Amino acid sequence: MSSHSSLTSSYRARAALPTTGPLASYLLRLVSIKQTNLCLSADVETSAELIQLAEDVGDSICLLKTHCDIVTDWSDRTAQALREVAKRKCFLIFEDRKFADIGETVQKQYTSGHHRIALWAEITNAHVLPGPAIVTALEKAAETTITRHNTSVNTEIFATRQTNGADDDDDDDFTYNDSAIESPIEMEGEERRLSIKAQDRKHSVVSVTTSISMRTESISPRPEPNGGTEEVFSLDSATELVHLGPPPFLRSLLLLAEMSSAGHLMTPEYQKETVKIARDHRDFVMGFIAQRSLNTEPEDNFITMTPGCQLPPPGQEGKKLGDALGQQYNTPHKLIFEQGCDIIIVGRGIVRAEDRVAEAERYRKAAWSAYEERIKKA
Q1: What are the binding positions for substrate in this chain (predicted)?
Q2: pLDDT tens digit string along 253-273?
Q3: pLDDT in tens, 210-259
């Protein structure tokens, strides 16, 4: 493992660095406050299972990774319910979509269709096989989604009744005022319409005024570095989470640089090009899916998230773990302490456990202990 500064700096200190994007900074602060660098891979097939799993282990995780296309009854209600749990339990959502197509296609896959990922997942990921244009395309799609979320259109319609002849002499003069608001996209997916009441047939002078208002997301300020490697808390975790607030409506991307399956074709040259593309898009790319930290240049502060993590059953430490489909597993200590990864991704080890809550805590404690051991080496 290299001696890059990101390996011996605390999550809290890294959140404050000027090269850290707002959403990455929020995630690092969330990890620090909850003391969890665990991401749950929620590979279940129904909405009910997904929401229940999030409820069960939400307190132990910083991220929930979804595969929305394997949830057979996925709907906007699923996304809305998941976001409600994420808000209460304080974790972010990562849709493991692995985009790998041309620009226009991935933009539609990201923002449209049945899943509309950009509306509910703070983080997604992509292969760079199509070249750097895939990152540019997804970034533009994310910007469009954010702009729509922060934009409201208000249309006011004024109609003045025309007075014409004796029949109208007794009518009081008045001005008819109706307004309609076109709101940002809602999770239920109803088509947005302007609701305009039918006008009185005597109205003859009509004026329409449309105003567009923009809001800026409230982004939690980056904390000042504490100058050391220890996690420093002036408040209890619950109070700090309140102070942190909800995540800003921003979107970020992870690039796949290495996979945990045996025989994958992501060569060192491919990884090198992936890192170069990430450096060219630091504002949007927060990090990598990889088996080791890829931070090498002084200004690098990418977050490495790592699948293929599993703890052996109690009493069977040292046992080599894997499955019949080429998946290879490493322990939290190896990935966090030895390889310099930041967040472990665990699926079946928790999802299939008899006691999911207890098993999630076992993984959380193991990964956090490995992180504390790593930064103490500084």
Answers
A1: 43, 65, 260, 327, 347-348
A2: 999 998 877 787 889 999 999
A3: 666 556 554 444 444 444 434 444 578 999 999 999 999 999 999 999 88
According to the annotation, is 89 in a ligand binding site? no
Instruction: In whole angstroms, give the CA distance from residue 183 to residue 63.
Output: 29
Query: Does the annotation place 347 within a ligand binding site?
Result: yes
Q: What's the chain's Rg over C-alpha atoms?
A: 25
Task: Map tokens 């069977």 to a residue.
Answer: 316
Return d(Cα 282, Cα 21) in angstroms, integer. Answer: 7
CA distance 292 to 333: 12
> Any binding-site annotation on 56?
no
Residue 62 Cα distances to 110, 181, 364, 376, angstroms: 23, 36, 10, 22
Q: Which residues pair with 38 in a beta bridge?
A: 344
Q: Which residues are catalytic?
A: 96, 98, 101
Q: How far is CA 161 from CA 199, 208, 365, in A?
A: 10, 15, 72
Residue 327 annotated as lining a ligand binding site:
yes
